[in-house]
Amino acid sequence: MIKIKNLSKVFGQGESQIIALHQIDCEIEEGKFVALIGKSGSGKSTLLNIIGALEKPSEGDVEIDGVNLFSMTSNELADYRNKKLGYVFQSFYLEPEFSVLENVAMPLLIAGVNKKTREDKAKEYIEKLGLNTKTNEKVKNLSGGQKQRVAIARALVNDPSIILADEPTGNLDTANGQDVIKILREIADNKKTVIMVTHNMQDAKIADETIELQDGKIVNRNINV
Ligand SMILES: Nc1ncnc2c1ncn2[C@@H]1O[C@H](COP(=O)(O)OP(=O)(O)O)[C@@H](O)[C@H]1O
Ligand SMILES: [Mg+2]
Q1: What is the CATH number of domain 32-57+82-223?
Q2: What atom of ligand 1 comes closest to residue 42's alpha carbon?
């Protein structure tokens, strides 16, 4: 269970101050697929980044399975991020000169897992994402759809309980975008929580719930049927 508690985020100061999030409260159940929707600038990425502990809130906290993220020390938080959270971004954030295997194994390297286990685990997820033939290929030689699947394999390799995706289909054509959405649906069906930012209403429909942000506040929450 994710509990978002009185969360606010303010950027800048004085005249140039921007309230990106304004006193948000919300709970997200384990194993749900939630789509965060809303206009550009409504605060979607800021909320996702704070849930993912990539940014600090100005006020409030995020509690995940009873743990308050922003009460942890930065070392504890880094460890938590690595083990419990998986990230997928619009622009992939992969290491282009590294192989698929090296990219997918990266979180395991950071977690201090030995080489054999790293490679076995990474290969397991590379296979799950249908990239076997690309295992030793440099990421820069892959198509957009393949890159996003590498990013998803990397997000899953540590068996995190929560996957956070910010516009994961934003740089993909329709067919590859659909593939990625289906993969995220399967991840949620396998009991992981998936939170996806999107402005594509078609993509949002596959989620269990949509949460709509407007000017840094939740204005709508719907269970999808
Ligand atoms: N690092 C930042 N510095 C200053 N303002 C920011 C920063 N990040 C986001 N903002 C502002 O906060 C608001 C919400 O942004 P964001 O969360 O990126 O919205 P969305 O993802 O819904 O498009 C916007 O007005 C944006 O300009
Ligand atoms: Mg955004």
Answers
A1: 3.40.50.300
A2: 22
**Distance (Å, whole) CA 28 – CA 48:** 12
pLDDT tens digits for range 41-86: 999 999 999 999 999 999 999 999 999 999 999 999 998 998 899 9
Task: Kindly list the protein residues that place their beta carbon closer than 5 angstroms to ligand 2, a single-atom ion.
Answer: 44-45
Phi-psi region of 65 (alpha: psi -120 to 50; beta: other; left: phi over 0): left
Q: What is the pLDDT of residue 170?
A: 92
Task: List the residue whose alpha carbon is closest to atom 2 of ligand 1.
Answer: 11
Pocket lining: 38 vs ligand 1, CB cutoff 6 Å = yes
In the chain, where the domains are located: 32-57+82-223
* Cα–Cα distance for residue pair 85/52, rounded to 1 Å: 7
- By alpha-carbon position, which residue is closest to atom 4 of ligand 1? 11
pLDDT tens digits for range 137-193: 999 999 999 999 999 999 999 999 999 999 999 999 999 999 999 999 999 999 999
Residue showing tokens 């899953």: 156
User: Is residue 18 within 6 Å of ligand 1 at its C-beta?
Assistant: yes
